[in-house]
TrEMBL record, chain B:
The keyword Iron does not apply. It is a multi-pass membrane protein. The chain crosses the membrane at residues 42-63, 122-145, 165-187, 224-253, 273-294, 301-325, 358-379, 426-447. This is Phosphate transport system permease protein. GO terms for molecular function: phosphate transmembrane transporter activity. It comes from Roseicyclus mahoneyensis. Its main location: membrane.
Automatic annotation (TrEMBL), chain C:
One of its GO terms (molecular function) is phosphate transmembrane transporter activity. It is a multi-pass membrane protein. Its main location: membrane. PROSITE patterns: ABC_TM1 (PS50928). It comes from Roseicyclus mahoneyensis. Belongs to the binding-protein-dependent transport system permease family. CysTW subfamily. Coiled coil: none annotated. One of its GO terms (biological process) is phosphate ion transmembrane transport. The chain crosses the membrane at residues 32-57, 217-238, 258-280, 286-308, 329-351, 404-423. Residues 1-20 are annotated as: Disordered. This is Phosphate transport system permease protein PstA. The keyword Membrane applies. Residues 213-420 form the ABC transmembrane type-1 domain. Keywords: Cell membrane, Membrane, Transmembrane, Transmembrane helix, Transport.
UniProtKB/TrEMBL annotation, chains D, E:
CDD domains: ABC_PstB_phosphate_transporter. Gene3D superfamilies: P-loop containing nucleotide triphosphate hydrolases. GO terms for molecular function: ATP binding; ATP hydrolysis activity; phosphate transmembrane transporter activity. NCBIfam families: 3a0107s01c2. Pfam families: ABC_tran (PF00005). GO terms for cellular component: membrane. Residues 18-260 form the ABC transporter domain. One of its GO terms (biological process) is phosphate ion transmembrane transport. InterPro entries: AAA+_ATPase, ABC_transporter-like_ATP-bd, ABC_transporter-like_CS, P-loop_NTPase, PstB-like. It comes from Roseicyclus mahoneyensis. The keyword Phosphoprotein does not apply. Keywords: ATP-binding, Nucleotide-binding, Phosphate transport, Transport. It comes from the Bacteria. This is Phosphate ABC transporter ATP-binding protein (PhoT family).
Length: 324, 458, 431, 265, 265
């Protein structure tokens, strides 16, 4: 059977943006709307790399770059030409209910100490003993550590580990004094604690927002767009003195911003109707430019120059190289 | 075209019915008694045509596309498919199909246009052929069936044999579903146990399946001991049953013995709504209403309550199970013969004494059967716990803590990631298998008990 | 109290029937306590149900109305030209009309902010009007369009005007504009038919359940057409014809067990068999229906067998006794008598299928699709998966829409259960 | 009626135990019992006979208010037990039923042990203070019901495991155990084979030493064999009531006569 | 036995309609019927009597293979109808049952109209070609069952709405309508009142003009009244079989004698 509609899978973070592009595309052209599924970055890669042909997806969204092993998986299934399209940034943010009585400003080191499975305790690398924020630093509130965060299946989790946990780990005196290198950090600082304070809350960010609203002492980790929509009830937690906002995320001042991508299966361009037109819509200025409709949904646009380059590269369908 | 084929089939089958029936009637008019009613002669003709030809049409519908695609691909000029992978060939086919729909990109090469034409003509030809085959086959069957009409022909038996066959086929579907599930579970679980020793799985006390999904991902090291997971299931299930059983039983007792008819007529259906509410809704309810309330109460009392407390998930699940238990208990109580109730009342027992000392004990086997079925529901329930229970497995029986369940793990391990080759994903199947075995055991037990109790009163 | 132990000696002591001893009072009290517990149990269940529905209604009711603004729009030929249709500057035309009502807004710098009062879909409302009737170009027409979600929330009182400006999606100036429109009588909050008649959208004010309803319809139809005949056929065979032995016991246990198998396992099976082996399309309601049919079948089989069992053997014997064949007995007498029970079971099974989520997630029925499926093979969502998607959308408007969608789903469930109860009461037979 | 073995009986008048006056029973709109007056004597077996549906069971169930358990059933008129109106609102039917016991057409032992079946009534009424007392009541009741010898070795066996006749006698023992003053029996032998029937009939004759017994039966032979008084019901009315010997040999009412001579066994 | 009114009967020997030899029946491991030989004569009413559980019903159900419907039931031995072995695998039990009709203990009309109840058999056996013919069969059958006058005005009313006795006669009409050659009746009067019983007994006597009738009964009086031949079963064996008058007045077997003299109405 042929297929008339474009199929997009992938990251739940990119999902709202793909949705927006898909709806805009179909409104503008009257063409059948692309079908967008939210499968998580990893899951999307598995489906995307399943092979070429109408049974397989055309695009996949990703909240992190494609990895080497995924690229190889694609290649082994005959998906050899892939175009990487960088579309913008997502501000991963820590947030808490406005009902919280405390003013929150954490360092990444404190975040690490609160959430990691293993931390230095009296100079020894040991299981995380901290149960209250005040245990970590007396200046922090004397309340239980409760952080709701993404499950390991999600790219959000990967990004958080990389951007917050690893960096926080490296800031530890223990690590700096010990002279441990990046590999050591990756080896030892990637595990989130499983003894209660860190709660893997599933992929549903709205659910986390609502749980924050009902529990003023719980922190949540999720996309900035959800903070933005609910500014009246929740607030971003400042990291190293920087509160999350569109500006601080775009400038990478807020510690945990990450790039968003989608990947194009080049072999499908020219076969699946309207695929190229949809890609053009997705990366148009109206979409990902400043003030474009993606920013309404919470995406942080790329700086002008980067954006122009990314758009050009995407339109040229330049196949990506094997990631390092 | 397919519709036409079905219409032809229907028309010929009906005419076969009429034809054979009138033939049988003619024999009867001649004064001979036919073995079977004329109606059965007709029915036999109808079924003889309908069943095989229907199967033929279905097979055609399934095979049409792959066969024609194969023919088109096979008919392409030499060389154009050289060095192409299956997927690329698939894309070529998709391009050709797009052309038949009038969608082209640039100027397609001539061989593609030719193939598109061939594709169109093959489809048209195949449909025509199918209609002809259907008509011809039906006619041939009709012809032979018509010749069978005779006074001594056992048309009833013949028709009943066909119906019997159809019913057996239906049963096979149900059985095949089970076989399919068992096969899928066992096969994947076997692969899992090739990677993780059975003993580690069965007796391990650590469940940390978050081993790297990709070679270069860093995460927790894998540990696949299912005990904490099943323990979590047991904790949540126990909470659920502790809520559902007393409330359900008391409800049944009240409705069965004390409630005025009008109350019963209202309460029963309203309660049934509780079991009809989609479980995803209960999930929202548990996590957004019940859990915070419990946490708040706990905080007021100075007790630490996890925000994923098993109490919330289990409690809400218990609510869901109330009507299940109450209607089972109500049925069991109703099944106790009225004579026992009269017997007790006539001895001067109050209604409460009659209920508690005679009716309820007499209904116990049925009630226990129902409770067991509710238990198997509870451990198989998915969406409530996916939303309201935790993800992290811990060896605890404290219902105020967060625990995880077998179904939660299955869902989280599977949704999102469908690489069927690492133990993380395969572990879901091992868990599924254990769940299947567990519910099977409970069901066998429940059936035994219910059976035994039926024997007493039948 | 008569006491037989002394009946031999002095004859039973006569006691009055009205005389009430402490013992009797105690027994009566025990009776009342039992009743009290029963009523308490029922009230508990009802309270929970009430809280559940109330919490849904309290968040969901606002989604059943939608804020609209009625504008007098001059369809400027400079922006909208007949030759360029369906493209054109509809957005600009609408903005111009808004600006004409907001004297304090600067036509240049505030254009974007003002435009954001309207739903993104507003331009397409206008476009469709004009495409249908190009002669409107150059005229001033009156058009009613939805406002965008932040203003919808504002109008519904979900935005607390007292919160600091930085913590709101709408700032004080925007609120002022909206209030100006409101005072001018241009704002109305009619019933939100779009909730039913629109397909999904990323804009809450445009999003509706049509796609989900159509998808659910196709899925349930498929589910019914497959599970009903097969379920009844299997049940009749197993109950009436299959030899009773270890094997049939085993099959019975298995079918009971199928009803208890977690639904996600059926999703697993569907993923492996229907999608990967048979290559059926992803996200299709047909596949969803097949999957749900596998789950519904055991329910139907169990209900049918129970209904068949309930038909008294005397009816069977009577028919056999006059020389009817087994099949004549079953199809002529037993099945018609069992039909109400079978239908009830089927409806309840379908109601369960209606609310089922997990297996549909596995076969991709949780996609974003802005048009309703026109056949069971087109990609589509279903009601529960639509709820799932909406629940995870950032816009505030989706919170109430999620609850509203749940209420719609509950409405259908109550309807189906009501039907089952009606059937049961109407045809309930006592022999 | 030459084949009837009428039980010999004395002529002494007995005390009246229950007295019904102007009893009417309605099931919804159906008028099932029409103005019935009956006196039930102490130490007497009274038989109710009549064609099916004439209201025998209905009237019997008025005597211990078992009709209360039927929603649509409405009873008017007076029924007195030892001079007390049993339909008086102050009367507790539970206490009434302890005094007016009942045995049903189909034996209905509880699915408990034989012992527990008999001990059930004494237990709920608190008739025994100790286990020994209870044991005594159970044994005595089983003896009275002429089943002690058959079951004394298996008091723990389930009552449902007995044969039909044994079950019926067990039910009688159960009724006797609460020490009733009147015993109502609704066709107690209709589910039994002839041998079991003989045993139960013998028992009834014995029971009348201590109780007032009312028995509903289809079989005129049975009525003739076991009863001293007979009431003939027809279409909800009491047609004739009197000495059994008189009713069977010399009925006053032509309806009685035609029923009895058209007798079918 | 001085109270039995034995039906007068001629001495002519009748043709043998059904013949059973060495019939054994097992329910699973229970041996319910042990080597029974019986001849059922044409135009004769044969009664099966015996204590409860002795196997009367079981044996009766062998005669039209109704036992086939009980999974665990196994029948061995020979039973012939007009010289044909009815357990021959080539025999269609469905046709057999059309020839050997059956009436059950509890009246069991279909939940359909009175007309449809009677017409059902003729319809499935194709006995009537036209509606008029069918009407005729229905009327004739209802007349034979002596119920025509009571129901002729309400043939469309549901059969379940009739009284017990009427229902039983309707069931007989239904059985008669298929034109059977043998009619088996399993305690057809046990659910009936005496008046209805009398009607059915009269009917049975009439039916024997056309059919061979086999009746199971608990009541020896009934057996004596309606039958010409009687078979006495005990614990699964046929103890005695012969002329009813002989069995009741002068039984050969001591077991028969003791059962009959221990008779209870
Ligand atoms: N629960 C009831 N609801 C409605 N009508 C009833 C009920 N029980 C009895 N009847 C009617 O009351 C009348 C008397 O019934 P009852 O059972 O007292 O008769 P009976 O003399 O005991 O008959 P049988 O000999 O068949 O037991 C009958 O017409 C019967 O239909
Ligand atoms: N379906 C059955 N399964 C097992 N055993 C049975 C079945 N039906 C009857 N029996 C047994 O076979 C024996 C004969 O039973 P049957 O019903 O023929 O007796 P009966 O003479 O008709 O008794 P009754 O007078 O009580 O009707 C009994 O011991 C009975 O328990
Ligand atoms: Mg009665
Ligand atoms: Mg019998
Ligand atoms: O859905 P993710 O972006 O978290 O992978």
């Amino acid at each position: 059977q042929g297929r008339e509609e474009i199929r997009v899978v992938g990251s739940s973070t990119v999902f709202p943006y793909s949705q927006a592009a898909a709806e805009q595309f179909s409104n503008n052209t009257g063409a059948t709307s692309p079908i967008v599924e939210s499968t998580g970055t990893g899951g999307g890669m598995q489906i995307f790399c399943g092979g070429v042909g109408v049974a397989h997806a055309d695009l996949t969204g990703a909240s992190r770059a494609m990895t080497q092993s995924e690229f190889d998986l694609c290649a082994s299934n005959g998906v050899t030409e892939i175009t990487e399209a960088l579309i913008g940034f997502d501000g991963l943010s820590l947030a808490i209910s406005r009902a919280s009585e405390f003013s929150w400003d954490l360092s990444l080191e404190q975040v690490y100490l609160a959430l990691a499975a293993q931390v230095p305790v009296d100079g020894v690398w040991a299981d995380n003993p901290y149960q209250r924020w005040s245990d970590i630093d007396a200046s922090l509130p004397d309340i239980e550590i409760i952080v709701l965060g993404p499950p390991p299946t999600s790219g959000t989790r990967d990004a958080f580990v990389e951007l917050a946990m690893h960096v926080g780990c490296e800031e530890l005196e223990f690590v700096q004094a010990g002279g441990f290198d990046g590999d050591w950090v990756e080896e030892n600082c990637s595990r989130m604690r499983t003894d209660g304070p860190f709660i893997e809350a599933g992929e549903n960010d709205n659910l986390i927002v609502q749980r924050l609203q009902s529990d003023p002492n719980a922190l949540g980790i999720f996309g900035y767009s959800f903070v933005f929509e609910n500014l009246d009830t929740i607030q971003g937690v400042a990291l190293n003195g920087v509160a999350p906002s569109f500006d601080t995320i775009a400038s990478f001042d807020y510690g945990v911003a990450r790039p968003l991508f989608f990947y194009i299966k080049n072999a499908h361009v020219g076969v699946i109707p309207n695929l190229m037109e949809f890609i053009e819509e997705f990366i148009s200025e109206e979409s990902i430019g400043p003030g474009g409709y993606q920013s309404e949904r919470g995406m942080v646009p790329l700086p002008d120059a980067d954006r122009a380059a990314a758009q050009a590269a995407t339109l040229a369908l330049t196949p990506m190289a094997r990631p390092e | 075209m397919t519709l036409l084929a079905f219409m032809i089939l229907a028309a010929l089958a009906v005419s076969g019915f009429l034809l054979n029936r009138s033939a049988a009637l003619a024999i009867q008019a001649g004064g001979t008694r036919t073995h079977s009613l004329a109606y059965f002669h007709g029915l036999y003709a109808l079924l003889s045509v309908l069943v095989p030809v229907f199967v033929v049409i279905c097979v055609y519908l399934v095979l049409k596309t792959p066969v024609i695609n194969g023919m088109v691909i096979g008919g392409l000029p030499d060389g154009v498919l050289d060095d192409m992978s299956a997927g690329q060939v698939d894309l070529v086919l998709a391009t050709i199909q797009s052309i038949t729909r009038g969608q082209t990109f640039g100027t397609p090469p001539d061989w593609q246009l030719a193939a598109a034409e061939r594709l169109t003509s093959l489809y048209a030809g195949a449909d025509l052929l199918m209609v002809v085959v259907v008509a011809a086959l039906s006619a041939v069957i009709l012809f032979f069936v018509r010749r069978q009409v005779a006074a001594e022909f056992r048309a009833r038996q013949a028709a009943e044999r066909i119906v019997h066959g159809l019913m057996v086929a239906c049963s096979l579907v149900a059985i095949l579903t089970t076989v399919g599930i068992v096969f899928a579970l066992v096969y994947e679980a076997y692969r899992f146990f090739e990677m993780v020793p059975v003993m580690d799985f069965l007796f391990g006390t650590r469940w940390e399946p978050q081993i790297p999904i990709r070679a270069d991902q860093v995460a927790a090291v894998g540990a696949f001991g299912w005990l904490p997971v099943i323990l979590g299931t047991v904790v949540i299930g126990t909470v659920a049953m502790l809520i559902a059983t007393p409330i359900g039983l008391l409800t049944a007792i009240y409705l069965n013995e004390f409630a005025p008819k009008s109350v019963r007529a209202v309460v029963k259906p309203v309660l049934e709504i509780l079991s009809g509410v989609p479980t995803v809704v209960y999930g929202f309810f548990a996590i957004l209403v019940v859990a915070p309330a419990l946490r708040g109460t706990g905080a007021d009392l100075g007790i630490a309550v996890s925000s994923n407390t098993a109490l919330a998930a289990g409690g809400v699940m218990g609510i869901m199970l109330i009507p299940f238990i109450s209607s089972f208990a109500d049925d069991a109580l109703t099944a106790v013969p009225r004579s026992l109730r009269d017997g007790s009342l006539a001895l001067g027992a109050t209604r409460g004494e009659t209920m508690l000392k005679v009716l309820f004990p007499a209904a116990i086997p049925g009630i226990v059967g129902g409770i067991l079925l509710a238990v198997s529901r509870a451990i198989g329930e998915t969406m409530i716990v996916v939303m309201a229970a935790g993800l992290i497995a811990r060896m605890t029986i404290n219902p105020l803590d967060s625990v995880t369940t077998v179904t939660v793990q299955i869902v989280t391990l599977l949704i999102g990631d469908t690489a069927f080759d690492n133990p993380k994903t395969l572990a879901a199947f091992a868990l599924g298998l254990m769940l299947f075995i567990l519910t099977l055991g409970i069901n066998i037990l429940a059936l035994r008990i219910v059976r035994k109790y039926r024997e007493i009163y039948d | 109290m008569a006491d037989i132990t002394n009946s031999g000696t002095g004859g039973p002591r006569k006691s009055s029937l009205t005389e009430s001893s402490a013992k009797i009072a105690k027994r009566k009290r025990a009776d009342l306590i039992l009743q009290g517990f029963g009523i308490g149990a029922i009230l508990t269940a009802f309270t929970v149900l009430f809280i559940l529905v109330a919490s849904l209604v309290s968040t969901g009711y606002t989604a059943f109305v939608q804020t609209h603004v009625t504008l007098q729009v001059f369809v400027d030929p400079a922006e909208v030209a007949e030759e360029r249709l369906p493209r054109g500057g509809f957005q600009e035309v609408l903005t111009a009309s808004l600006l004409s009502n907001l004297p304090d807004a600067d036509p240049e710098s505030d254009a974007r902010a003002v435009r954001n009062i309207l739903s993104n879909g507003a331009q397409f409302y206008l476009r469709d009007r004009i495409v249908a009737n190009p002669s409107l170009i150059g005229q001033t027409i009156s058009i009613t369009v939805p406002v965008s979600d932040p203003f919808d929330q504002l109008n519904k009182g979900n935005v607390d005007r007292a919160t600091p400006e930085a913590q709101r999606r709408v700032n004080d100036r925007e609120i002022g504009w909206f209030d100006a429109l409101d005072t001018a009588g241009m704002i109305a909050t009619p019933l939100n038919w779009g909730l039913i008649t629109n397909a999904d959208s990323r804009f809450p004010e445009l999003a509706g359940l049509r796609g989900a309803l159509v998808g659910t319809f196709w899925a349930l139809l498929t589910c019914f057409l497959i599970s009903f005949p097969i379920g009844i056929g299997a049940a009749i065979y197993l109950e009436e014809f299959a030899p009773k032995n270890k094997l049939s016991d085993f099959i019975e246990v298995n079918i009971n067990n199928l009803a208890a198998v977690p639904s996600v396992v059926f999703g697993l099976l569907a993923l492996a068999v229907f999608l990967n082996w048979f290559g059926l399309p992803r996200s299709a309601p047909f596949v969803g229906g097949l999957t749900l049919a596998l789950m519904t079948m055991p329910t139907i089989i169990i209900a049918t067998r129970a209904a068949l069992k309930a038909v008294p053997p005397s009816i069977r014997e009577a028919a056999l006794g006059v020389g009817a064949s087994k099949q004549q007995v079953v199809f002529g007498h037993v099945l018609p008598l069992a039909m109400p029970g079978i239908l009830t079971g089927t409806i309840i099974g379908l109601a369960q299928a209606l609310g089922e989520t997990a297996p549909l997630l596995l076969i991709g029925m949780n996609a974003f699709i802005t048009s309703a499926a026109s056949s069971p093979f087109d990609a589509s969502t279903a009601l529960p998966t639509q709820i799932f998607i909406w629940a995870d959308s950032p816009e505030r408007g989706f919170v109430s829409r999620t609850s509203a969608a749940i209420l719609v789903l509950l409405g259908f469930l109550v309807l189906m259960n009501g039907m089952a109860i009606y059937l049961r009461n109407k045809f309930e037979r006592r022999w | 009626m030459n084949d009837m073995r009428l039980t010999e009986r004395g002529v002494e008048t007995k005390q009246i135990k229950m007295k019904a006056r102007g009893v009417e029973v309605f099931y919804g709109d159906t008028h099932a019992i029409k103005s019935v007056d009956v006196d039930i004597e102490d130490h007497t077996v009274t038989a109710f006979i009549g064609p099916s549906g004439c209201g025998k069971s209905t009237f019997l169930r008025c005597l211990n208010r078992m009709n209360d358990t039927i929603d649509i059933c409405r009873v008017t008129g007076d029924i007195h037990l030892d001079g007390e109106d049993i339909y008086d609102p102050r009367i507790d039917p539970v206490q009434l039923r302890a005094k007016v016991g009942m045995v049903f057409q189909k034996p209905n032992p509880f699915p408990k042990s034989i012992y527990d079946n008999v001990a059930y009534g004494p237990k709920i009424h608190g008739l025994a203070r100790t286990k020994a007392e209870l044991d005594e009541i159970v044994e005595k009741s089983l003896r009275r019901a002429a089943i002690w010898n058959e079951v004394k070795d298996r008091l723990d066996a389930p009552g449902t495991g007995l044969s039909g006749g044994q079950q019926q006698r067990l039910c009688i023992a159960r009724a006797v155990a609460t020490g009733p003053e009147v015993l109502l029996m609704d066709e107690p032998c209709s589910a039994l084979d002839p041998i079991a029937t003989a045993q139960v009939e013998e028992l009834i004759d014995e029971l009348r030493q201590s109780y007032s017994v009312v028995i509903v039966t289809h079989s005129m032979q049975q009525a003739a064999r076991v009863s001293q008084k007979t009431a003939f019901f027809h279409l909800g009315t009491l047609v004739e009531f009197g000495e059994t010997s008189k009713i069977f040999t010399n009925p006053e009412d032509p309806r009685t006569e035609s029923y009895i001579t058209g007798r079918i066994g």
